[in-house]
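Regression test case RT-17, inverse folding.

Input:
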């Protein structure tokens, strides 16, 4: 372990942390420490796309959190995966490249009072690290594509390496139901139906450790990486230059070698990039959070910040399953040892087929009702079905059309329950806790039925298996949504940024923690509202923005 001070201490080597480490260590005059509680990303299932099945719920790669029992889910508790490995959630997630909608970022600018978060400004950050397959060969991309996408960055975006006739039929049915086809979900409005693009490279998962750490950052003498190292709390001192203010001077870290206390050089900063569960947990353990909560656990309240751990938002997907006839799905294709062997051989020889699959292949964005001003629903459609994630596939051919409310109004919390980093915090998303969210849940199930009833799917004789056609009223469908819905693993908002007058804002628009010098947060927890789509790439954008500000 280093005996020198650092200019930047980054907590969390996940999606945001890896990019920040790359960008900040590019200045050879700045010493950068990246701290990761998990281990190295040397587990083979991280890199095989379908390996998320063996990484989620595995303590080698996942924190293995669970929510508290959720009233909106009829008392169920959900598994709540968070990456605990180099690359963080980018090592275990669904690999879908999705920016959200331009209106998301216009709204952030309004909430924070800072125009740097407007769509045209964040677009530059997205393009800086993007490496899109359509730009591999000059002159082959559609007209105007290069103005929206990047081709020289580290974050690889590719087409999926398989198609399924049943998914093609669902896409055609969606068009018949009024959802237009699209070839680009990432141009500012994502309305339409099409196959998702993914963060893969030649059939392998492309995580942020590959993209931003190796070989670039690893070869820099001013960069240091600690793995298997959990931050227990931040080190805070009263700042004599600011009456009543605090300064972050470093961290207390439990490592395989014992407790280490890396410190900051004058003018240095600690950057929390531990995610929407980890970052509020570390702040609360450090005495930064809701005063009553901290006092009740015997912690000294260094700064009463009521927004730390509040404002939790997540996308709740409602999984509708339809049995089909005359269609090949993964349920039967992977049912036999011979089928499994052929799937393995296809991947070994061509890096294609089901082992190259993202968890969801086909996507659609649309409106829950015609009076919606923008698409508020996202579909993840899969050529398979099962009772719950991690359970065996059904024995019959079927597809799953999962739909989520992109802009939920329900808000939850992440709160520590003990003054100890080894104790998991209490995660309460409060799913379906508002009338609006329950209404949209019912409307989304009806829309799924309308899509499936179109002529394009008629040849496959789809039969609703879950939730079941006998459920029709808003009340019945909302209750059934509580029975069958699950997280799509997009927690955000627990350290939200905001205007100076917002009492619940944890950071300002430049991600500085209120009242604490030398401390920022840069991950999905700073989002004031959830983006309209998968959240991994917006998290990278946030890190890119901060890196640009720090580089000057």
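Golden output:
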């Amino acid at each position: 372990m280093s005996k020198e001070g650092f200019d930047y201490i980054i907590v969390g080597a996940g999606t945001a942390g890896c990019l920040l480490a790359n960008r900040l260590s590019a200045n050879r005059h700045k010493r950068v420490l990246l701290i990761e509680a998990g281990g190295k990303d040397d587990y083979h299932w991280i890199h095989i796309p379908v390996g998320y099945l063996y990484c989620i719920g595995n303590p080698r790669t996942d924190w293995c959190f669970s929510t508290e029992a959720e009233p909106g889910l009829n008392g169920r508790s959900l598994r709540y995966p968070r990456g605990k490995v180099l690359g963080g959630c980018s090592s275990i997630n669904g690999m879908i490249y999705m920016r959200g909608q331009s209106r998301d970022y216009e709204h952030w600018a309004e909430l924070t009072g800072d125009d740097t978060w407007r769509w045209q400004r964040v677009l530059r950050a997205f393009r800086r690290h993007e490496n899109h397959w359509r730009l591999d060969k000059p002159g082959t991309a559609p007209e105007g594509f290069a103005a929206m996408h990047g081709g020289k960055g580290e974050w690889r975006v590719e087409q999926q390496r398989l198609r399924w006739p049943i998914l093609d039929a669902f896409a055609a049915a969606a068009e018949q139901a009024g959802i237009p086809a699209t070839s680009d979900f990432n141009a500012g409005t994502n309305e339409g139906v099409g196959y998702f693009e993914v963060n893969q490279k030649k059939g392998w998962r492309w995580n942020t450790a590959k993209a931003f750490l190796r070989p670039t950052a690893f070869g820099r003498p001013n960069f240091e990486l600690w793995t298997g190292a959990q931050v227990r709390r931040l080190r805070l001192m009263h700042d004599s230059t600011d009456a009543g203010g605090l300064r972050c001077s470093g961290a207390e870290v439990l490592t395989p070698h014992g407790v280490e206390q890396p410190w900051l050089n004058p003018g240095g900063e600690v950057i929390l990039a531990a995610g929407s569960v980890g970052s509020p947990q570390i702040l609360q353990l450090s005495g930064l959070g809701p005063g009553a909560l901290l006092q009740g656990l015997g912690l000294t309240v260094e700064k009463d910040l009521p927004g730390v751990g509040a404002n939790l938002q997540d996308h709740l997907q409602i999984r509708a399953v339809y049995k089909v006839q005359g269609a090949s799905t993964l349920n039967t294709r992977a049912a036999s040892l011979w089928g499994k062997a052929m799937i393995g051989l296809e991947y070994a020889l061509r890096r294609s087929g089901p082992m190259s699959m993202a968890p969801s292949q086909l996507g659609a964005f649309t409106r829950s009702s015609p009076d919606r001003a923008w698409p508020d629903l996202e579909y993840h459609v899969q050529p398979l079905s099962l009772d719950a994630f991690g359970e065996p596939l059904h024995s019959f051919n079927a597809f799953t059309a999962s739909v989520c409310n992109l802009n939920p109004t329900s808000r939850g919390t992440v709160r520590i329950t003990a003054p100890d980093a080894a104790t998991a915090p209490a995660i309460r998303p409060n799913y379906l806790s508002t009338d609006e969210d329950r209404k949209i849940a019912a409307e989304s199930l009806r829309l799924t039925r309308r899509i499936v009833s179109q002529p394009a799917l008629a040849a496959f004789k789809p039969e609703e298996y879950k939730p079941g056609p006998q459920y029709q009223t808003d009340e019945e469908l909302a209750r059934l949504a509580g029975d069958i819905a699950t997280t799509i693993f997009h927690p955000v908002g627990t350290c939200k940024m905001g205007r100076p007058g917002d009492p619940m804002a944890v950071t300002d628009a430049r991600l500085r923690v209120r009242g604490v010098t030398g401390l920022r947060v840069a991950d999905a927890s700073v989002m004031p509202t959830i983006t309209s789509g998968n959240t991994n790439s917006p998290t990278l954008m946030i890190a890119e923005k901060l890196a640009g500000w720090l580089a000057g």
